[in-house]
Amino acid sequence: MFKLFYLPDTASLAPHIILNRLGAAHELVKLGKNDGSLEAEEYLKLNPNRRVPTLIDGDLVLFESAAICMHLADSDPDSGLLPPLGSAKRAVAYKWLVFMTNSIQADMMFYFYKERFAKTPEGAEEVKEVGIERVTTFMSRLDDALSDGRPYLCGGQKTIVEDYLLMLGRWYMQMGQEENLKSMAHLYALLCVLEDDHYVKATYEAEGCSPLFID
Fold first, then answer.
1. Could you tell me whether strands 54-57 and 26-30 are parallel, antiparallel, or unpaired per DSSP bridges?
2. 37-41 contacts at long range (C-beta below 8 A, 24 or more positions apart)
3. CATH architecture type of domain 88-197
4. Contacts (Cβ under 8 Å, ≥6 apart) of 212
5. Who contacts 194 (Cβ-Cβ below 8 Å, separation ≥6)?
6. pLDDT tens per residue, range 159-198
7. Does the global pTM surpass 0.85?
8. Cβ(83)–Cβ(29) under 8 Å?
9. FRET pair for 141, CA 20 to 30 Å: which of 59, 124, 147, 165?
10. Which CATH superfamily includes the segment(s) 2-79?
11. With the C-alpha atoms ordered 127, 133, 138, 143, is the resulting torsion angle positive or negative?
């Protein structure tokens, strides 16, 4: 059985959705941002980065959300949550997942943790604005990719890439970028479709998340 350490509406959201999508037996361990649980000695043995998510699968301990998502998909190859190994579509899935975690998610940190990247309050605000600009540019590239009419980023198959995209789409909305996102018509339409999903709704309910793209 899997064990997922999580915080609601954080980087653990995509792995949580995927666990539900797989129907995999799992235990959830909720941590707190301000209760010391991220710094607890036992947790630091699992994840010295003081972050979520962390996944335990038998003797295997994983951190980093994208790595966990890929491992979960590979744990059930028949699930279709990733295209076949060695296929061109599998490579495309890797491309988009790495783009999202290495470019979009990384630059979102400039917004949410601006004070880490500046020495003055004024500098922190500049960092925040740069983060918004960079993330908006990257999000628009996803919209461009969808403009050819494909239903999902990898073509006709919904994969873990979409669950990761939904997680980042929520964060972009939380950055106050609803107007920008709605102007990316293809991307916004996909996010609405992704949120109107049984497994997503079940995960939201478990974590106490409110929908951001559908009523």
1. unpaired
2. none
3. Up-down Bundle (1.20)
4. 169, 170, 173, 174, 195
5. 162, 163, 165, 166, 169, 200, 213
6. 999 999 999 999 999 999 999 999 999 999 999 999 999 9
7. yes
8. no
9. 124
10. Glutaredoxin (3.40.30.10)
11. positive
